[in-house]
């Protein structure tokens, strides 16, 4: 049930290679075995691959399981083209071999682990290969700087500041990522070639808009977070503290003019609340406006409920009805729960303590109180945020606004605002192919921001 209720508002984490890794040819015994296993799997000769497995690995990942794990990927990434790179390193006595393979449409990383030369582990994950996936290098006519948020503090976080070429001051956006631990680029866990915030930041810089983005607190400081901190995590720690520090850094920079908040998914849902937090500081000035992408004015738990229900057929929905009802009742009673209940119970897979804090500020009401210009957009192929919960809900909630609100619905763009390839599967495989945020989206955001200058 925990997996069923896992929040899927955002794609989280990315595959990163160990800093001590060394690129090497297949000269070590482990590397040679790894290549043999990968070549066998690529040839769909699973019994040949299994011959190299340790007894424990063979019992856990037999021929049939290997087939079921590998062959569905081929429908997405296309035909095997060969080994692209081999990397090997030792970690705590375990030899780890990374075999990066090129396929017709993307890359696939095989991670094989060896103990005493025995193959004990095998994992597969889609990855980016720049030459294949078309990852763009940063443009030259942009100044990139590293900025320390809360410099010198235990929770110091590094941010990337992009300043366009030319004379400022430039309008700037503070970028607010979606739910879960996210890096500064919002790198997809499904395919690391997909980096929405990288695309948007670079694209805006080309058009005269600066940006600052950073790893979320729950990504940058995950290793240091105690159990108590995790149990009592709120929007303040996860989003607001970093956003305030980012705004302060921009305010101190003479090259920066008006400041906007740009949020994606849950980050979009929190733009109004964070704008209020900025202005409540008293010394950070006003936020000029907000860009809200693939978000909703509804509470987080309601979006999670809608996502989970949408994934169930009628028979499954009937079997889960009692559990769903229990979760809905719990969500509606957050204000009555004790401290112990809030920190021990979950609502649709997320801490009740966190859910209570998230629901404490109504996004639409906060937006109306703020009165700043808004740009609200989503893709028509976004199954994680339906139009009813997203764009249409915003239009209804902000119908009485006395300030400019621009709404955009982009045809055939998914939750990442990238083109949807093929039929929608309503699974993470919809994000498996490498893509880029639509240029039209970036152009429209830039036009919205520059129109306020």
Summarize the structure.
The chain has helices spanning 29-42, 46-50, 55-60, 63-77, 130-133, 196-206, 217-220, 227-231, 235-251, 266-269, 271-280, 300-310, 314-331, 339-344, 352-358, 363-370, 391-397, 439-451, and strands spanning 22-23, 80-91, 94-103, 107-115, 118-127, 142-149, 157-164, 170-176, 210-214, 256-264, 289-293, 346-347, 350-351, 373-379, 405-410. It is of the alpha/beta class. It folds into 2 domains: 22-133, Nuclear Transport Factor 2, Chain: A (Roll), CATH 3.10.450.590; 142-297 and 362-451, Alpha/Beta hydrolase fold, catalytic domain (Rossmann fold), CATH 3.40.50.
Protein architecture, described:
- Pfam families: DUF3887, Hydrolase_4.
- It comes from Candidatus Alectryocaccomicrobium excrementavium.
- This is Alpha/beta fold hydrolase.
- The chain is an alpha/beta fold.
- It folds into two domains: 112 residues, Nuclear Transport Factor 2, Chain: A, CATH 3.10.450.590; 246 residues, Rossmann fold, CATH 3.40.50.
- The strands form three sheets. The chain has an eight-stranded mixed β-sheet with strand order 6-7-9-8-10-11-14-15, sandwiched between helices.
- α11 packs across α16.
- It is globular and about 70 Å long.
- The N and C termini lie far apart (50 Å).
- The relative contact order is 0.12.
